[in-house]
Structure formats: structure tokens, C-alpha cells
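Objective 1.3, modelling of assemblies. Example input:
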Amino acid sequence: MTAHDSDHDELPAHDELSARLRALPTERVPPARVWQGIAAQLPGQAPAPEVAARTPAARWPHRHRWPLRVGLGMAAALAVLMVVPTPIPQTPAPSLLQRQADAMAGEYQQAIAALPSADVTDEWRPALHELDASADTIRAAIAENPRSRYLLGQLQRTYALRLELTQQAVLSAGLPT
Amino acid sequence: MRIPLSLIAALALCLPVVAQAATNVNERHPLGAGGRVEISNIAGKVTVRGWDRSDVALTGSMADGLTLKQDKSSNRVRWEVEYPRGRSNGGATLELRVPRSVEVQLGTVSADIDVADIDVRRLQANSVSGSITAAGRSGETTLNTVSGGIRSQLQTARLDARTVSGQLLAGGGASGEVAAESVSGRVNVNAGRIQRLAVETVSGSLDVSATGMAPGGKVTMQTVSGSVALKLPANVSAQLNVKTFSGGIQSDAGQVEKPRYGPGRSLDARLGSGDGDISISAHSGSVRVSLGR
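Predicted structure (C-alpha cells):
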């Protein structure tokens, strides 16, 4: 079957559809007495206005109220937004690697806290500060790239070294210099 | 008899010198191949040299108040400089002579360690703020310092060097297995033919070269913010993998890939027949891979 044949086959259906559309009842305005009957059945309502009186000129006062209502609504919404605290946009949930880094940091803090407090000597202090700064650097890098597993290894190594050196520093605190 | 006033004044001036008089050290102990010698000294300096004899000798001097504790057996000797509680007036300057094929273990706090002309089975040197310099031959080597630098020219089949803030320079024929770690100090490794090479820093730069890779060899370099430079011969056979987050990549082989969206760069390349593995990871540091030495 060619495209030309196809066009020909669809013509009778098109004619039939047009005929059925023409046969549909046309849109009609209900007669005025219908509105009066509805208004009469509504309890406590003022008498329905004459449909003939609903001229465009008569409807203008209602339409003029709409900008006022919209403006008042917007002002009220603005006031609500200003008074009610706006929820902070939710930050993405920490990745597994970030949670592991947090857990590692917590364990490290506990281990450091468990060590006896002692004034470390000058030989140790620069390196301990360096390791603290490095751990911060690595954690910042993990926050930037939370899928980098080797950074977690770096953090683990840094914490382990910090802990090991702190233990040594505490042990040697009583030694002469 | 009247003593001249000038003589009294001169004696008074000499008193501090007498009070700080050094104690000489002169010890010997027979030690055959496979034996172990250990030195522990907090401050001053420890020098180690090899010789063709079958005993170890310790010479030098100690500041007043320091004593030398000895612990000897047939195949082991340990000398430890003991310091009085509180602040001492000085350290000990010691020189150790060692025979071939022994194990040497050195520990200091602020004392520098200087090792040369040795041919030992194993060398282990640890310091806190002292620097470590080592040359000669050693089967296995461990060099650790916290804030001091490390400079190794050892011919060794197994080198493990670690520092926190000091610079780490390893050359002179380190081959086989090499591990070098630093936190903020620069790491420079000039290796021979390597089987395993692992170099890590946090912020220190990495500069590594090797004359070759053993079949199935493995190179791993990692840093957070340090720059990375790797130089290998043109005929190296390995699979090269480089990843950075925000750092740039330059390589004589392979193409740098960037995701269409988001940060990160990577490079995968087959060098030769791709026998070994080279893996480089940097967060913000740049990476440069050169071939053809």
C-alpha cells in the first residue's frame, strides 16, 4: 500500500467525523428564567439580579477588586515568608566514605583523650601540629571529593601516625632534653 | 703563703669547664655475622662506619652526668646513654664501628644519625628531630624521623623511609621494594629496578624516577595537595592509571579524560605490553609522567 492509497482510504472516515461533529448540539445560553429559578431555591440569598442587567458596565466594579485582592494576598504571603523561618535547603546526605571519616575522627579523638596528659617537648610539637593540619586538609579534600577512597587511607595513616607519635611524646615527656 | 689574686680568678673561670668535663667512651665487643648492635642516645650525634673486623667498637664522649649502660651477649650488644632526670648540660657524640653482615639499630631524639661505608644485613634508624644520613649497603633498611630530614644513598633491596615534616631524599641504588612516606616534606626517590614502589605524602611534592620495573612490578603514588613527577624509561611495561580531582595531568603517553560535567581528570594508558601497574592519585596536586630516560 502506497502513501497515496492510504490518503484515499482515510477520506470516508473524515467525512463521517465531520458529519457527526455537525450533528452535535450547539452551545446555548440558558434562558433567564432558569437562573431565576436557581436563585429562588438558594436559602437566604438576595434575589437574583436580572440577567439582562448583567451588562459589562455592571461587572466592572467586581473586576476592579481583583488586583486589590491579589495584592493583599501577595503581601500576606510575603509577610508569612518573612515571619516564618524559611527551611534551610537540605545539604546532600554524607556519603559512606564521609561517614567512615567521621567515625574514624571520633575514634581518634577518643584514643587521644584516653592518653595521659603531659606537656610534650619541643622536639615533638611541630610534627604534631603538622599532622593536625594535615588531617584537616585531608578531611577538606574528602568533603570536596567524597568518593575518593585513597583519601580515607591517607586520613587513617595520618591519625595513626598522630596517635603513635603522641604516645611516644607522652612517654618521653619525662626524659631530659 | 700568699696566693695571687689573679690565680684565684683564673681557677674560678675554669670551674665551669671542669664541671662540664666530658666522659670518654671506649668500648668493644666481639660480634659475628648475624649479630645485632643497638645504640640509644637522646642528644648529640651518632656516627656509624663499617670496617673489616669481627667486633664492634664504640668511641666518643659524653657530657658530664651522662652514663653508658651496657647490655651484652654473644650475638647482641646494646649501649644506651642514660641521662639524668631534668635538663642535661649536653649530649653524647658517639662513633660506632660495625663489621659486615650485622644488624644495626639506632635510636635518638634530637641527635643526628650519620651512617656510611657499611655493609650490613639490616639497618634501622629512628629519630625525632634529628636528621638521618645513610650510605653504603644494607639488605633491609628502615629510616624514620619525625621532623628531621632523611638522605639515603644506600644500596638496598628493601627501603622503608618515613618522615613527617622533613625532606626525604633516597637515591644511590634503592631497588626492589621501596616505600617512602612523608606528610609535608618533599619526597625525592631515585631508584634502580623496582619491584614495589609506594610513595605517599599529604602536602609534600613527590619526585620519583626509576631505571626500570621488574616484571609485574607495581608503582603507587598518592598525595593530597602535593605535585607528582614520575620518570620512567621508555621501554617500561605497565598499565598506567592517573586520577586527580582538581590537579592537572601531563603525560608522555595516553590521553587525559575529563568528565563532561563536574571536576576530575583521569588517564589510562598501556605502556609497552602493560605488564606492571602504575597508579597515581592526587587530589589537588598536578601530575607529570615522563618516559624515555
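The CA atoms of residues 71 and 78 of chain B lie 5 Å apart.
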